From TrEMBL, chain A:
It catalyses: N(2)-formyl-N(1)-(5-phospho-beta-D-ribosyl)glycinamide + L-glutamine + ATP + H2O = 2-formamido-N(1)-(5-O-phospho-beta-D-ribosyl)acetamidine + L-glutamate + ADP + phosphate + H(+). The gene is purS. Pathway: Purine metabolism; IMP biosynthesis via de novo pathway; 5-amino-1-(5-phospho-D-ribosyl)imidazole from N(2)-formyl-N(1)-(5-phospho-D-ribosyl)glycinamide: step 1/2. This is Phosphoribosylformylglycinamidine synthase subunit PurS. GO terms for cellular component: cytoplasm. It is found in: Cytoplasm. It comes from Jiangella rhizosphaerae.
Automatic annotation (TrEMBL), chain B:
It catalyses: L-glutamine + H2O = L-glutamate + NH4(+); N(2)-formyl-N(1)-(5-phospho-beta-D-ribosyl)glycinamide + L-glutamine + ATP + H2O = 2-formamido-N(1)-(5-O-phospho-beta-D-ribosyl)acetamidine + L-glutamate + ADP + phosphate + H(+). Part of the FGAM synthase complex composed of 1 PurL, 1 PurQ and 2 PurS subunits. Its EC number is 6.3.5.3, 3.5.1.2. This is Phosphoribosylformylglycinamidine synthase subunit PurQ. The lineage of its organism: Bacteria, Bacillati, Actinomycetota, Actinomycetes, Jiangellales. It is found in: Cytoplasm. One of its GO terms (biological process) is 'de novo' IMP biosynthetic process. SMART domains: GATase_5 (SM01211). One of its GO terms (molecular function) is ATP binding. SUPFAM superfamilies: Class I glutamine amidotransferase-like (SSF52317). The active site is at residues 85, 194, 196. Part of the phosphoribosylformylglycinamidine synthase complex involved in the purines biosynthetic pathway. Catalyzes the ATP-dependent conversion of formylglycinamide ribonucleotide (FGAR) and glutamine to yield formylglycinamidine ribonucleotide (FGAM) and glutamate. The FGAM synthase complex is composed of three subunits. PurQ produces an ammonia molecule by converting glutamine to glutamate. PurL transfers the ammonia molecule to FGAR to form FGAM in an ATP-dependent manner. Keywords: ATP-binding, Cytoplasm, Glutamine amidotransferase, Hydrolase, Ligase, Nucleotide-binding, Purine biosynthesis.
Amino acid sequence: MARVVVDVMLKPEILDPQGKAVQGAFGRLGFEGVASVRQGKRFEIELDGEATPEAVAEIERAAATLLANPVIEYFTVHVEAGV
Amino acid sequence: MRIGVVTFPGSLDDRDAARAVRVAGAEAVALWHGDADLHGVDAVVLPGGFSYGDYLRCGAIARFAPVMEPLVDAARGGLPVLGICNGFQVLCESHLLPGALIRNDHRKFVCRDQPLRVESTATAWTSGYQAGQQIVIPLKNGEGGYVADQRTLDELEGEGRVVVRYLGDNPNGSYRDIAGIANARGNVVGLMPHPEHAVESLTGPGTDGLGFFTSVLEGLVRA
């Protein structure tokens, strides 16, 4: 068993209204020193077997096809150690 | 003429879209998301709503519904397809139309009668309007901000593929006030406002939306 994590974020040039709302809440709650907040998505994917290069490549294809919309988002894939 | 209206789990304007098709004088054919068959229809409407709960991204899961396989092929082959609101989001996710729809810049759901300008009548769904015609149809969305990179936006403008534009205050942060666009061939159109809610004066702000459905019908009759 292995876990592959896909993080999806809006591209920097795309406005993130949710992140802006969170940033506003930071200010109201008195959390200081925050310049900006961007909100994204994290997918934790459990594999049937080991995280072989082929298995990870398969997840990368899934990320590019389904999990992220490359028009507005980018993604990173990494294998989580010690699961 | 038979115009299909697709129902996804979470579609909510499919009934109104079918009614608009009938008011325009065509036969409405119910298409099911799980059925990979267009049943020989002459055009298709992807209606508004919250397909698959808008999970992941609006339209992202609907894009892979069985009905979308023949639909994407047929659209590439010239079948007239109209995506309204969630249907527009599905068309963008399917890459039949460029760009994407993101959360409204002001973060609030907007629901109002929206003035628009018809910018292009060179599409299957707007040929019955006059270029520059101002119309009012309902707009209701939480994620209706149209975004695309500058090159795509310039291309859309240069090729006359901006179909409708918001007049007055921009309701959702859409780049260049874009409310709807078309593919290069003009058979695929997507827009956030809801023409199907403005086909009878009893229940809408007027009948300005009817032209989308009569346009495609007239085109099909001529063909």
